[in-house]
Structures are given as C-alpha cells and as structure tokens.
Design brief:
about 260 residues, alpha/beta, Rossmann fold, seven-stranded parallel beta sheet, about 15% strand, binds nicotinamide-adenine-dinucleotide
Amino acid sequence: MSKELDNKSVILTGGATLFGAAVARKIVDAGAKLAIVDINEEACNRVAQDLGESTLCYPIDITDDLALEKLVGDVNDSFGGIHAVVNLACSYADSGAESTRDEWLSTLNVNVVSMARLGFYARPYLAASGRGAMVNLTSISANVAQTGRWTYPVSKAAIVQLTRNMAMDYAADSIRVNSVSPGWTWSAIMDSLSNGNRAKTDAVAAAFHLTKRVADPQEVAEVIVFLCSDRASIVTGADWAADGGYSAMGPEQATPAIPLLMK
Ligand SMILES: NC(=O)c1ccc[n+]([C@@H]2O[C@H](COP(=O)([O-])OP(=O)(O)OC[C@H]3O[C@@H](n4cnc5c(N)ncnc54)[C@H](O)[C@@H]3O)[C@@H](O)[C@H]2O)c1
C-alpha cells in the first residue's frame, strides 16, 4: 500500500526534542527519508538512530547561514532531492517587558529569520521536486497576549505573516507554504515543568482547550504530514489550528455565562 510521503525527502528542524521526535517518527512512518536538523547533537543522533536507515542527523545551528547552505546540498546529495521542509526548532527565551535588545534579536533570529533563510537555501531544491512544501510551526501564542511573554509570541505572530509572504513568492515555483498553530502540546517543556505529570498538565489545560487536555505531539504531527503531502495540493498560505479548540474559545470559556445574570 502506498504511503503519504513515499519517495519524498524531508528536512525537519528541531527534531531532537520530545515533540520533534514524534513529528520525525510520523514523517518516517509516512514513507519519507528524513534529515533531522538540531543543535543538540546527542539527542539528534539518538532520534535518528532510533528511526533507522532512512533518517540522518545534521547537528547544526540554524542561525548559521553557511551551515544551512551546506545542509541543503548535503541532504540533496544523500537523498536525491528535497521535497519538504518542516521548521519546528524554536527558542522560548523570553524576558517579557525586560527583554534586552540581544534577547529580542536572538529569539527572532532562531524563530523567524532562520525559517526565512532555510527557505531561501532550500527553494531551488523544493522547486526542482515539482511539488515542494514548507510547514512552519507557530503557536496559539501568535494571537493572544500572555503574561510576561513578549519575544516568543511576537516571533510566532511574525511566522504567520512570513508564511503568507513565502506562499506568495514561492507559488511561482509550485511550492506550498503553510503554518501550523498548536495549542498546549505534551512536549519537553511540559514534561519538565510538570515533573512528568501528564494528568496534572491535562487538568491545567482543560479550562482553555475544548478538548479539555493538551495535545499529543503525534496529533499535531498528523497535520504536519498532511500539509507536506500531495493530498494538500490546494492548500497554501494558510495557518492551521491544531489546538484542541483553544482559538475558538472566547473569554467566556466553555461554561454558560448568561445563566449567571439570572442568579
Ligand atoms: N510545546 C508546546 O506546547 C507548543 C505549543 C505551541 C507551539 N509549539 C511550537 O512547537 C515547536 C516545538 O516546540 P517544543 O516545545 O518541542 O520546543 P523545544 O524547545 O522542546 O524544542 C526545540 C528544538 O529546537 C532545537 N533548537 C533550538 N535552537 C536551535 C538552533 N539555533 N539550531 C538548531 N536547533 C535548535 C532545540 O535543540 C530543540 O531540540 C516550536 O516551534 C514551538 O514554538 C509548541
């Protein structure tokens, strides 16, 4: 039986983390050859090894243009082409209103500029594939204010716009570009903050996700794989919510407010 990403090769940044590894697994299970790009060399190698022969690890810093330029050439040589790029790597560094210029530039550099630069270097290869795709990870943080957070949400909002710009200009090369906005997702940061307590994490998330829990990274990965695949051939320039209904909910949350007037 054919699979969604058979005969394709995919670059995934940030694939060494809990979330990224789940996305990596889904991409490989969908039939693709995979290049995992992550600054965490040890974890990157471990994930690539677990996934077997069809996966290679490239332990580079995505803020390094020379490394990105070399990366796309190397992946093309190893896999005979590049069909999709998934930009998942991120920095959560954020000092809110106190963020220094260096902190601003650093977060924007990792989260936004590196996506644009990897797109620039990958474009000729994606174009040569005839049906290229890019998927950029943004967040529900792109659309709401969160206490004490400035640089990360601003970077995520910029990614939604960057995605539209890329989709506009890359359409000339038949490359589709979309973004995915997860809500709270079981990930390294949730694991660490909750001391590995998934039930507690779900309970905290319940008030602001219609699904009353955090997402599994595999559930977000399903959306990413779909957007990389030819099944999404009519989809470009769009931001896909994979957020358990977080963005559909208003300030009244999911409890009836009108009856409170009648009490
Ligand atoms: N975790 C969530 O609940 C959540 C919610 C919404 C959106 N997201 C988005 O999903 C994506 C993954 O989130 P996560 O929580 O797994 O993040 P994470 O911090 O656990 O993982 C990010 C990965 O990026 C890598 N990375 C960071 N800087 C790099 C650099 N300069 N060069 C190469 N690699 C680098 C890290 O080593 C790490 O493996 C992010 O784009 C994030 O914004 C996450």
